[in-house]
């Protein structure tokens, strides 16, 4: 697959990525290279990477616990201490190999350690390949509030290898599909049609490449999310709030990111139909298709107040006003939309029908 050039770094694929990584390590003459993993990528993905690295260098592996619940400043502190204890300096390199938690947090750790060291992202989940690892966003959660602490910082490169997807469960693969659907609904209808046409086999590798192209095109035009990049938040205003609510509730099973965003895309499509006459026929196709892929999140009417309260902390808000990205049609979005609480509740009722 063809290399995609982003703001200051390339997104490289498979063998080309590993060759470039080896050349980079050799050219910089690192004394030690640090690798950030969780227990899953340590076991299943690190051996794949180690087989591909031919550069003569010492590697130090830093392992954290997996899961969104560990994407916080406490975990960052443990990684900063590990880097210090292992002798990292301002000329060190951190390779982040894992899903969105690893690439988001690893990028944040690297870009703040000693005012910034170089880092490389090797995403191993579908979600992190098509979304989290590309675009320069790094950060961690503040309690259950997602991605509240962070900054923009670019890696030296991103390496995409679909081989890592073989280490995932079907549930994790499905989770990543939500972001690809988002790209289809907001930017490229041909991607969306691959989900609605059940007669054709899904080209997953092609979807990955096209999704990264889309995100990169958007980021190159609007790196700091002043305008166009906001469309990438479609489905995330309600979705993130539901995800956070389930994460903090003792009596609820934690959702995958994809499950939450799937709910968000359906509810926000409903709101779009009410505010911007988004076609009802498309709304029904969105609900039917997404529900077929993701099933239904067991949200209850008693959850509504907590979900709506969490939306008040969404990082896209301005002056306390919740801002939505909504659809006028497939591929055409409206940003910074104001939505009443009653309509948000109505959209959740529609989801539960």
UniProtKB/TrEMBL annotation:
Q: Which residues form the 3-dehydroquinate synthase C-terminal domain?
A: 176-317
| InterPro entries tied to this protein | Dehydroquinate_synthase, DHQ_synth_AroB, DHQ_synth_fam, DHQS/DOIS_N, DHQS_C
Keywords, ordered alphabetically: Cobalt, Lyase, Metal-binding, NAD, Nucleotide-binding, Zinc
Query: Boundaries of each 3-dehydroquinate synthase N-terminal domain copy?
Result: 62-174
Identify the EC number(s): 4.2.3.4
Its required cofactor(s), as named, are: Co(2+); NAD(+)
GO MF, any single term = 3-dehydroquinate synthase activity
Query: Which leading EC class covers this enzyme?
Result: lyase
Positions the record marks as coiled coil are none
Q: What does the record give as the function of this protein?
A: Catalyzes the conversion of 3-deoxy-D-arabino-heptulosonate 7-phosphate (DAHP) to dehydroquinate (DHQ).
Q: Which PANTHER family match?
A: 3-DEHYDROQUINATE SYNTHASE
Q: Which NCBIfam families match?
A: aroB (TIGR01357)
Q: What protein name applies here?
A: 3-dehydroquinate synthase
Q: Which organism is it from?
A: Wenyingzhuangia heitensis
């Amino acid at each position: 697959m063809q290399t995609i050039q982003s703001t200051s770094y390339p997104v490289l694929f498979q063998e080309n990525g590993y060759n470039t990584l080896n050349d980079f390590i050799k050219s910089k003459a690192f004394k030690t290279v640090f690798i950030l993993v969780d227990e899953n990528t340590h076991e299943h993905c690190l051996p794949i990477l180690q087989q591909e690295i031919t550069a003569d260098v010492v590697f130090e592996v830093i392992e954290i616990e997996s899961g969104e619940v560990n994407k916080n400043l406490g975990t960052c502190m443990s990684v900063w201490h590990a880097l210090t204890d292992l002798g990292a300096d301002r000329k060190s390199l951190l390779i982040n190999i894992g899903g969105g938690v690893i690439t988001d947090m690893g990028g944040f750790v690297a870009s703040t350690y000693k005012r910034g060291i170089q880092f490389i992202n090797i995403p191993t989940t579908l979600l992190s390949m098509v979304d989290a690892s590309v675009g320069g966003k790094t950060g961690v959660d503040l309690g259950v509030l997602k991605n509240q602490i962070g900054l923009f910082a670019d890696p030296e490169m991103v390496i995409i290898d679909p081989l890592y997807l073989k280490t995932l469960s079907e549930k994790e693969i499905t989770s990543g599909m939500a972001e690809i659907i988002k790209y289809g609904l907001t930017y490229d209808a041909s991607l969306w049609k691959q989900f609605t046409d059940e007669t054709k086999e899904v080209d997953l590798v092609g979807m990955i490449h096209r999704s990264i192209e889309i995100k990169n095109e958007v980021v190159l035009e609007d790196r700091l999310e002043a305008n166009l990049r906001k469309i990438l938040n479609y489905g995330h205003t309600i979705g993130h709030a539901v995800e956070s609510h389930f994460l903090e509730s003792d009596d609820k099973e934690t959702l995958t990111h994809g499950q939450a965003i799937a709910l968000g895309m359906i509810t926000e499509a409903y709101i779009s139909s009410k505010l911007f006459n988004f076609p009802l026929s498309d709304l029904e196709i969105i609900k039917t298709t997404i529900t077929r892929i993701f099933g239904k999140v067991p949200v209850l009417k008693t959850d509504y107040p907590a979900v709506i309260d969490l939306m008040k902390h969404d990082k896209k808000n301005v002056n306390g006003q919740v801002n939505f990205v909504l659809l006028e049609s497939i591929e055409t979005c409206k940003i910074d939309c104001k939505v009443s609480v009653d309509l948000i509740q109505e959209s959740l009722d529609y989801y539960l029908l």
